[in-house]
Amino acid sequence: MTTAASLPSDAHGLHGIPEPVYSWLEEQCLQAADAGGPVWLRMTQRRGRRVVQVNSFVGVIRAPSGFQIEVLPKVGRAIGGGADQARQLLIEMLCCLRGFRHVKTSSAHIAAARMPLLEVFIAEFLRTVELIVKRGLRGDYSVRQENLFALRGKLLMARHLQQNLHRADRFFTEHDEFSIDRPEHRLLHAALQRVASISASRGNQQLARELQFVFAEVPASTQPAIDFQRVRLGRDMASYADALAWARLILDEESPVTGQGRHRAPSLLFPMEQVFEAFVAKHLSRQVRLPLSLKAQARAHHLVRHRDQSWFRLKPDLLIKDGNRDVLVLDTKWKLLDSLKANGTDKYGLAQGDFYQLHAYGQSYLAGQGDVALIYPKTATFEHPLPVFDFPHSAGLRLWVLPFCLASKTLAMPVELLRNHGFKSQSESAVLESIDLD
């Protein structure tokens, strides 16, 4: 099985891959376009060469041949370092994404430096299953009806007379039977079979086979969608939550896209916009002073009313609240800005549509009075907040463009915002981060 944890690039920043893999990627481009869903790949040209480009997704693409392509965030300008640093940062960011918070960075940190990203994911899944096995598989009682040679449980007289009128040695009974054959175990068994077939790591393969032996008495799920509907994670099954979250990813081969359903992908791919949003939301909450609070994905307002119906919900990524009062609206954008390009043509790399969006948020959530902000990753060309933007026709509304440092996990803000909206300073947040054991 041929795998590639990372691919060398040429002088133009292009990565070469085998022709069969490239042809498969082109086929995926066409299928995604025909399906009408989110286009995660696109075909283009660069310097006279055919190129396939991944659009705003990160993670692992696995071709049918087993060839793996890691799509890492473009963080070289943000944190420095190479693929290992980008891989570790991606794992830390994924920990903040809804549906993926079961990743444990402490163990993944060690593995990330020497394993391809897909093997890191597989190792994390196997670790969660191993913890369940060490604690013992949870069995359950199920009601069974059988025609037995001995009376067991309750005799079902009508069925007994129907089937055993001439068989005095049989009893048609209904009884409770304790078994580990339950949907949770069927799903884990199926996921173990799946990772054993796709893993290229000898250690992962060996552990997967050992764990499969524990589930030998349980048939692997053949209908995962139905079995997931039957999962019941009560208090005694809470330890299964992480492993089943992994199993859902492995069996469905879906990317957990927060907020707008799930994007079907042939491998484990994650939308970078939402990964960045979740990362900022987790760490920005530590910069907010009480009694203020941070709310993610607010949904309180709509853009218009039509025939007594509210249309076009306004959903800012982040909202700072003081009790029931909205005081600051923030939106995250995964894009690298250049603060030196302040001319009318480049406009730092900012998009006009984002300004329209924040203006609508300010009018609805802040009644046109106060501050709204766009948050971008901090880079060597965008280290400090840009000068404030004023809306000429909304005199009381101002827009800020702020850098978020991926390394220190803090948002850089001008003193005015720090004072007006109850944020801790960067130095205070850095101290808090250093003592945070989460």
Please write out the topology:
Blueprint: H1 19-35, E1 41-46, E2 49-54, E3 57-62, E4 68-71, H2 76-79, H3 83-94, H4 105-112, H5 117-135, E5 140-148, E6 154-155, H6 157-164, E7 171-179, H7 183-198, H8 202-214, H9 224-230, H10 241-252, E8 254-255, E9 263-264, E10 269-271, H11 272-284, E11 292-296, E12 301-306, E13 309-314, E14 318-322, E15 325-332, H12 352-365, E16 370-377, E17 389-391, E18 394-405, E19 410-411, H13 415-420, H14 426-435
Summarize the model shown:
The chain is an alpha+beta fold and 438 residues long. The chain has helices at 19-35, 76-79, 83-94, 105-112, 117-135, 157-164, 183-198, 202-214, 224-230, 241-252, 272-284, 352-365, 415-420, 426-435, and strands spanning 41-46, 49-54, 57-62, 68-71, 140-148, 154-155, 171-179, 254-255, 263-264, 269-271, 292-296, 301-306, 309-314, 318-322, 325-332, 370-377, 389-391, 394-405, 410-411.
Plain-language structure description:
- InterPro entries: McrC.
- Pfam families: McrBC.
- This is McrC family protein.
- With 438 residues, the protein is of the alpha+beta class.
- The model is unreliable at 1-12, 105-113, 255-266 and 429-438 (pLDDT under 50).
- Helix 7 packs across helix 10 (241-252).
- The chain starts with 18 loop residues before the first helix and ends with a helix.
- Helix content is 36%, strand content 24%.
- The strands form six sheets. Strands 11, 14, 15, 16, 17, 18 and 19 form a seven-stranded mixed sheet that branches. It has a three-stranded antiparallel sheet with strand order 4-3-10.
- It contains 14 helices and 19 strands.
- The protein has helices spanning 19-35, 76-79, 83-94, 105-112, 117-135, 157-164, 183-198, 202-214, 224-230, 241-252, 272-284, 352-365, 415-420, 426-435; strands at 41-46, 49-54, 57-62, 68-71, 140-148, 154-155, 171-179, 254-255, 263-264, 269-271, 292-296, 301-306, 309-314, 318-322, 325-332, 370-377, 389-391, 394-405, 410-411.
- The longest helix has 19 residues, at 117-135.
- Among the domains are: 140-179, no CATH class; 288-435, no CATH class.
